[in-house]
């Protein structure tokens, strides 16, 4: 069948393009009952004679006021794959309100090819059957849809291969075009049961950190990037071995060593959203589960300072048990409000473990979970064992490798500077966080952006930090010696006391023997 004949068929039988446009204009002047009759009758007659089938994808999602994911995906697919062939396009402000997104306009027909078959897509809208008196949003009364038309003989091909293909491609385009987001959990008092997504609020994620700007020893950095790359590309592998497609990282180290910066760099590298989970705002395990279920794939879920967020250590929990009696005495002295507060805060270690393993498996994949802590030793081993936290990354003080990155970032110094050898030496001997080193390399005024000046300042700061550390160490040793001395004195006193008691007992015994003798 020639393209002309097909077009005529389509115009006659399915009412595409211009026909629909004219219909949309005149239908408001026709009484509703007649309009319905005309629509259904023409559709019935047309479909009886037509060798073509059509599939409609409606914009209305399952939830009220929610757009169907399939509709959004088709929109993304068409704007990428077919918009070039359309003559009528529409432009909207896309992500971060900076980019223009161009898509196919309503009533404009575009063709697509798949496995040697031609299909026709067009977008249109129909009046919603339930008209309301008050419209809160523009266009609320209209329901938009996409319709694809194809020959009957291609039914299986379209349903089983083409539509899944459109779904896959559309998702990839939607992810590429989306504005990445940083989510934070809302307090449960503000959750809305009609809007499941209300458990998280979000802002655009625009952290500029990348692995290029992260100060770290190059080999360690490369190992992390390789690990992330392998994870991203291992969908099939995870499926083959029967594991959920997720990975856990524990970032530990002193303050200011770049743990939060590393998370931002990871998100930028993987092109993922970030869910920053504030555990102290979560009342119990049920809330935790709900929060998790509302996260999407291609995301990093972060719990910062895990040791401070929740009482997680086995030791502390055991200690709690032992002192249960004492606690119940304490509770008596608590105010009613305080008791309620304790009752409400019930996220437990096992709840958190379920959050990490149990639900992961049933909620789709491509998620990374990251815990950060300043004190790895305080964490329960169950929480950070391999399989839960697959990779433990130590973020440590700045050494020369990290410094070189900072010198390049902050001062554009890429070649060896005369002061580098002294800085290298000092960095090996002194523990200074990358945050502090960076502070010294960041001149506040444009005029002072002289590398030599900044490096001199850094050397001074490093020397001072070294002296301070030595002084603190000396003080610590002194204090230890003092404690040792006290200990010795105490031990001596205890020994003398014991000796005295022994001697007394001896004298007592002797006296008793003498008494026995005189009584004999
Ligand atoms: N390794 C690093 N590379 C680049 N910049 C860093 C690095 N570490 C720290 N910084 C700088 O110092 C600042 C603080 O770092 P960051 O918040 O990542 O530290 P942190 O380890 O998360 O600290 P905390 O334990 O207090 O949360 C950042 O804004 C960043 O500019
Ligand atoms: Mg941090």
Automatic annotation (TrEMBL):
Family to which this protein belongs: Belongs to the AAA ATPase family. BCS1 subfamily.
Annotated organism of origin: Lolium multiflorum (Italian ryegrass)
SUPFAM superfamilies noted in UniProt: P-loop containing nucleoside triphosphate hydrolases
Record-linked Gene3D superfamilies: 6.10.280.40, P-loop containing nucleotide triphosphate hydrolases
Catalytic activity, as annotated: ATP + H2O = ADP + phosphate + H(+)
Cofactor(s) in the UniProt record: Mg(2+)
Domain AAA+ ATPase, chain residue ranges per copy: 245-399
Protein name, UniProt field: AAA+ ATPase domain-containing protein
UniProt-annotated stretches for the region Disordered: 469-520
MF (Gene Ontology): ATP binding; ATP hydrolysis activity
Top-rank taxon: Eukaryota
Keyword flag ATP-binding: yes
KW Nucleotide-binding (keyword) present: yes
GO biological process: response to stress
SMART domains reported for this sequence: AAA
Keywords: ATP-binding, Magnesium, Nucleotide-binding
Any single Pfam family the record assigns to this protein: AAA
